[in-house]
Amino acid sequence: MHEKISAKNYQIQQPSANLPDPDVIATEIAEDLEAALQQFATIAEDLKR
Q1: What is the pLDDT along the chain (49 residues), one digit of tens a residue?
Q2: Distance from the CA of 32 to the CA of which of 3, 7, 20, 47 falls in 20 to 30 A?
Q3: Domain range annotation of the chain
Q4: 3-state secondary structure (DSSP) of residue 17
């Protein structure tokens, strides 16, 4: 079963004093999502062949 990722889970794993600024976290999440979307697009194209 997949584990939900949330800010709460992230904070549990790392003390809040060690967390990057929220804008840094948001940017990293956006970059990860864009990379995942590109991977899905590649897979979708491969499945069309």
Answers
A1: 445 555 555 556 656 778 899 999 999 999 999 999 999 999 999 999 8
A2: 47
A3: 20-49
A4: helix
